[in-house]
Design a protein that fits this description.
With 572 residues, the protein is of the alpha+beta class. 18% of the residues lie in helices and 21% in strands. It is elongated and about 140 Å long.
Length: 572
């Protein structure tokens, strides 16, 4: 290779004083203009078709706001993209955009108050502080706010704010029955799966009826005078809650092969509304041949009427050593059961000359042994078709109950009633679920009171509604009973009675009977796929799960300790 002299290299250098290629004055490449750019631009993706939706979502122009995730991935040339933006018209220069952010006022520790109902997407970070939180109203009014529990104080609207209540202590409830080591776990079903079940059943047919009914006292429908509130009077009347397999009428129907599944309305309603339940319960299932009996244990949990089971801040057991507290779940359940028993007896007119007799006498009442007169109660044995095909028929017989009868105001025909009672213990006590004061709000804000009860006592009201529909009752009467003194649970007053058609009330609660029938059929099929024996369906005390166990044949018959509420949870 020929060597190049230094003079030739110097001669080959471009003319001028600068280094590098000569400047170019052309602004196009093959007739296409270059895109404007700036020296501050970073090289990134070749093209980003989502840039407008991520970075300039509001389309207001001006400096573009880059998302944090795309801060280092800007597009080459984006710094001068505003050069391509069309100028605004003159009539748009005076246009201003109203901020969409809600105005929030902070009160105390971690509380955010927004007037009205909780909005989706709004920040809700209340931790339930202990300070008295109130919103100063107009003219010095203190109409809205929060009390020391983090709940509402006289607030007709809104809700108790909180972010999953992560700072609240965990509530570990005890199981309703001891899980023995020799019990075999067959199925574990979560509530999400149960909620998807569906089975359409017929309206049912009456097989037989027993007992009698007194007429309902319509004076309780009138609004009581404040100075003359009616007190709840305890009445000694013979009432029965016999389990399925001990019912002589059901035993007779089972011998006649009238159905496959047998149950009472109390047990069946608990199973149909199981997805709403929070507290633990259990059902004993006995298979004999091709028949299924849904039973309950003596003094079972589902015999008690719970209070505020579904409330966000449900009643809690006393932890300070005071076992005599009247606002614990167990004490409230006993109080509510006592109120329901006496309320149904008080609101009827006990006149032997004016009562509706069923086809047969009360099958459980024995005048030779009982000292109290029988309560107004009618038992209807009704059959429902749960068949999924004609080749595989399946029928269910349930013992339903009615509490009273009344004359239709228009036609004069007899209407059958179920009578239940909601009870208020203390609207300011922990566990009240933000309930309104019934004495002042039941007349003026009846809808708000009922809506709050639907939220706090969803499973209880759903069970009552299902029982009313199963019995084909025309009206369901709900009484509102409150303590005469919030600090005492032995004296009560009746504040009012409201009646609903059961199916209308079910629609208001978004209660689906088809889902309930699907649950019953699914549990029955699980037991029918096994051999003869005894099973127990247990609601987990702290999770939304049902567990089906196969238990030895002698369980719950001879060992007395199994009839008591256990001390600890044996199943996690």
């Amino acid at each position: 290779m020929a060597q190049t002299s230094l003079a030739d290299l110097i001669a080959a250098l471009p003319e001028g004083d600068g280094w590098g290629p000569p400047p170019v004055t052309e602004t196009t490449l093959n007739g296409v203009p270059y895109a404007p750019f700036s020296k501050g631009d970073k090289l990134g993706r070749m093209a980003d078709w989502t840039a407008d939706s991520k970075d300039s979502r509001d389309g207001r122009g001006g400096r573009q706001q880059y998302n944090r995730n795309f801060r280092d991935q800007q597009i080459y040339g984006a710094g001068t993209a505003q050069l391509f933006t069309a100028p605004l018209a003159e009539d748009e220069n005076t246009f201003s955009v109203v901020s969409r952010e809600t105005t929030k006022t902070r009160y105390g520790r971690g509380a955010v108050f927004t007037r009205g109902r909780g909005q989706r997407g709004a920040r809700q970070d209340t931790r339930g502080g202990r300070a008295q939180l109130q919103r100063p109203g107009r003219g010095g009014q203190q109409g809205y706010g929060y009390d020391s529990r983090g709940g509402r104080s006289n607030a007709p609207r809104g809700r108790r704010f909180g972010w999953k209540d992560y700072d609240k202590p965990a509530r570990n409830r005890d199981a309703s029955v001891n899980i023995k080591p020799d019990w075999q776990l067959l199925e574990e079903i979560d509530f999400n799966r149960l909620a998807k079940l569906n089975l359409d059943a017929d309206e049912g047919e009456d097989l037989d009826s027993y007992g009698f009914l007194y007429y309902y006292d319509r004076s309780y429908d009138k609004q009581p005078v404040k100075a003359a509130e009616r007190r709840l009077v305890p009445l000694d009347r013979a009432a029965y809650n016999v389990t399925t397999s001990s019912d002589p009428v059901i035993q007779e129907l089972a011998e006649k092969e009238e159905a496959t599944i047998f149950a009472t309305d109390s047990i069946l309603s608990m199973l149909m509304c199981s997805t709403r339940s929070v507290y633990p319960w259990d059902i004993v299932i006995v298979r004999q041949g091709n028949k299924i009996f849904l039973d309950k244990r003596d003094n079972a949990a589902l015999d008690m009427v719970t209070v505020n089971e579904n409330a966000a801040d449900a009643p809690v057991e006393s932890t300070d050593g005071n076992k005599d507290s009247i606002n614990t779940p167990s004490a409230l359940a006993e109080e509510a059961t006592y109120i329901n028993h006496n309320f149904a007896n008080q609101v009827v007119l006990e006149n032997e000359n004016q009562k509706v007799e069923m086809a047969h006498e009360n099958p459980f009442y024995n005048p030779a042994e009982e000292t109290e007169p029988p309560a107004s109660k009618a038992y209807k044995y009704r059959r429902f078709d749960l068949s999924t095909s004609e080749e595989d028929p399946m029928y269910l017989i349930v013992r339903t109950e009615l509490d009273a009868v009344q004359k239709n105001a228009i036609s004069g025909d007899d209407q059958f009633l179920t009578v239940k009672a909601l009870n208020e213990f203390d609207s300011k006590a922990p566990g009240s679920g933000g309930a309104l004061d019934w004495r002042t709000k039941l007349v003026s804000q009846r809808g708000a009171v009922v809506a709050t009860e639907m939220k706090n006592n969803s499973v209880k009201l759903a069970r009552w509604t299902v029982q009313s529909i199963l019995s084909k009752a025309d009206v369901m009467k709900l009484g509102f009973v409150s303590r005469a003194n919030p600090k005492s649970n032995d004296k009560h007053v009746i504040l009012g009675v409201i009646g609903w058609k059961p199916k209308d009330f079910a629609n208001q609660m978004n209660l689906s009977l088809s889902n309930g029938w699907g649950i019953v059929r699914t549990i029955a099929d699980m037991c029918l796929n096994r051999g003869d024996g005894k099973f127990v369906l247990v609601k987990d005390p702290n999770k939304s799960i049902l567990r089906l166990y196969e238990v030895p044949a002698g369980s719950f018959d001879e060992e007395g300790e199994e009839e008591t509420v256990p001390e600890t949870v044996a199943e996690e």
